[in-house]
């Protein structure tokens, strides 16, 4: 059973302390039913009065993977792992999670197999996801509560190769929505949700550019749609452009930064540029 450990610095009710740790009422209800609240080694209720120096343990309820998932022993490159998180490098060509078109051997199922082989008590929860044909860093939490604590704390940076010569830097601020006649394709539209993308050019030539891109919102296909909107679709992206120099969009989730929600440690991870991108743009 996964445990969260805290040291108390101020007197207060345990219920209020847990709220300060961003443990929701829903999570607390699940903990009370199938987990445990322990202070200084003794089981307590949320009405317990804490004093400075108390050691609080939150025993999280055990989780079971969905029966629709099939653990897969496919290759897995782990960039970082601790008792709360598993962060991996996704190759292009596999899905982050199962879908109707690709029901098996997803990255999620490979991480599940890894957990089972190492007798992990948690199950993988996707914190960040990538399109099937995008490579790079994907973050998994080992419990639903950890997933909740990771929400909106990760700064993500991508590297992409774009058609044409882009500006030296810029901010793309166009709302995005799904196309009415497609379940996949997105478009810029005043009716869409706000979407903000910033970029800095690393290399510029007439026929291609390389950019570092930061997402300030998390819309589906945001980078692909935004660069199409300013006339520079991604190399290899035939959904939003016509370039065929690569059999997939030239997009790689290169770096993440976050403050670990349990340890308070600042973490920065980078993932080497995928080899197929290096093959078309040698300077990467």
Compact summary:
The chain contains six helices and 18 strands. By secondary structure, it is of the alpha+beta class.
Radius of gyration from the CA trace? 22 Å
Q: Strand-residue fraction? A: 25-35%
Spatial shape: elongated
Give the N-terminus to C-terminus distance in angstroms: 43 Å
- Tell me the series of helices and strands, N- to C-terminal: EEHHEEEEEEHEEHEEEEEEHEEH
If helices are DSSP runs of H or I spanning 4 or more residues, what is the number of helices?
Answer: 6
Number of strands: 18
- Helix and strand content put the structural class at alpha+beta
List low-pLDDT spans: none
How much helix is in the residues? 10-25%
Mean pLDDT: 94
Please describe the biggest sheet, giving its number of strands, its sense, and whether it closes into a barrel.
10 strands, mixed
What does this protein look like?
With 284 residues, the protein is an alpha+beta fold. The protein has 6 helices and 18 strands. The protein has helices at residues 14-20, 25-34, 107-117, 144-150, 222-229, 275-280, and strands at residues 3-7, 12-13, 36-39, 42-43, 49-50, 55-59, 77-81, 85-90, 125-126, 135-141, 155-163, 169-173, 176-178, 186-188, 196-204, 208-215, 251-259, 266-270. The strands form 4 sheets. Strands 7, 8, 9, 10, 11, 12, 15, 16, 17 and 18 form a 10-stranded mixed sheet that branches. Strands 1-6-3-4 form a 4-stranded antiparallel sheet. The longest helix has 11 residues, at 107-117. The radius of gyration is 22 Å and the shape is elongated. 34% of the residues are buried.
């Amino acid at each position: 059973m996964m445990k969260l450990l805290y040291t108390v610095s101020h007197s207060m009710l345990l219920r209020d302390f847990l709220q300060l740790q961003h443990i929701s009422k829903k999570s607390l209800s699940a903990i009370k039913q199938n987990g445990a609240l322990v202070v200084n080694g003794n089981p307590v209720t949320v009405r317990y009065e804490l004093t400075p120096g108390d050691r609080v343990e939150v025993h999280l309820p055990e989780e079971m993977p969905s029966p629709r998932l099939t653990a897969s022993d496919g290759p897995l490159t782990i960039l970082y792992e601790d008792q709360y998180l598993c962060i991996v490098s996704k190759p292009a060509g596999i899905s982050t999670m199962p879908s109707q078109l690709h029901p098996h051997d997803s990255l999620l199922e490979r991480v599940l197999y890894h957990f089972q082989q190492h007798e992990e008590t948690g199950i993988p929860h996707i914190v960040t996801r990538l399109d099937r044909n995008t490579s790079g860093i994907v973050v998994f939490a080992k419990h639903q509560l950890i997933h909740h604590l990771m929400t909106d704390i990760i700064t993500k940076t991508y590297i992409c190769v774009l058609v044409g010569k882009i500006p030296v830097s810029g901010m793309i601020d166009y709302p995005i929505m799904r196309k009415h006649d497609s379940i996949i394709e997105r478009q810029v539209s005043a009716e869409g949700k706000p979407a903000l993308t910033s970029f800095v050019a690393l290399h510029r030539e007439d026929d291609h550019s390389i950019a570092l891109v930061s997402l300030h919102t998390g819309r589906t296909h945001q980078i692909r749609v935004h660069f199409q909107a300013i006339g520079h679709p991604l190399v290899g992206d035939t959904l939003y452009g016509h370039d065929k120099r690569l059999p997939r969009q030239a997009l790689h989730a290169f770096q993440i930064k976050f403050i670990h929600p349990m340890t308070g440690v600042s973490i920065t991870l980078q993932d080497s540029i995928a080899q197929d991108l290096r093959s078309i743009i040698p300077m990467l």
